[in-house]
Amino acid sequence: MPPDSPAPSWLPPGRPLTVDDLETLPDDGHRYELIDGMLLVSPAPGTRHQKVVLQTAFRLEQVCPDDLHVLAAPYAVRPSNTVELQPDVLVARDEDLTDRLLPVAPVLAVEVLSPSSALSDLNYKKAAYQRLGVPSYWVIDPQEPTLVVFELDEDGRYELVAEVKDQDAFEATRPFPVRIVPTELLGRLGQSRM
User: Which of 83, 120, 124, 194 is the most exposed place for a label (fewest CB within 10 A)?
Assistant: First the structure.
């Protein structure tokens, strides 16, 4: 939840939340994430969002090297007791994965925008992924098919390296070569406006 939002009554008062607190939250179809003890709540995603997640994961999986894995949410990135993120799609090293979660930064985090998540994805999560040292961060807008790509520079800060729209292609080199065309991520939905 953004810092100025009132806390629901089921949250413990007066302290930052921990990953243990996440275990007590209701199983109500929302995605619950923590950034430095601050709760982010996202409602169940819509059709275009889910299609883009599926197509992105599929395209990455098709060319993923054997020492890396592509996973889709819900799957926890939990580097500390006060941070748990669930990128819509992530790529992680084989040796970094556990049976339940990823305790270190992925090599790629992908967030697909929803009306309720745009502020978090472009600000809070971008800053968190940068602090964690995620080398590549992609943000995809399924409404106006766009892919925005950030990569860490030599100083460990995200720099915008690409913004492609509609039928334009992004030829990724990190974490491995893959070609992404925003409208293709919508599959048949790209032929109509939902």
Answer: 194
DSSP per-residue letters across 75-110? -EEEEETTEEE--SEEEEEGGG--SSEE-S--SEEE
Assign residue 38 a region (left: φ > 0; alpha: ψ between -120 and 50; beta: otherwise): beta
Residue ranges per domain, the chain? 44-191
Residue 32 forms beta bridges with which residues?
Answer: 41
135 φ/ψ angles, rounded to the nearest 5 degrees? -60, -40
On average, the pLDDT of the chain sits at 90
pLDDT reading at 7 higher than 50: no
38-47, 67-76, 82-91, 103-112: the lowest-pLDDT one: 38-47
Length of the chain: 194
Quickly name the fold that domain 44-191 has: tt1808, chain A (3.90.1570)
Taking the C-alpha atoms of residue 89 and residue 54, their distance in angstroms, rounded to an integer, is: 9
74 prior amide bond cis, ω within 30:
yes
Instruction: With H, G, I as helix, E, B as strand and everything else as coil, classify residue 112.
Output: strand
- Residue 169 predicted with pLDDT over 90: yes
Q: Are 180 and 162 in contact (CB under 8 A)?
A: no
- Tell me the β-bridge partners of 172: 178
pTM for the model stands at 0.90
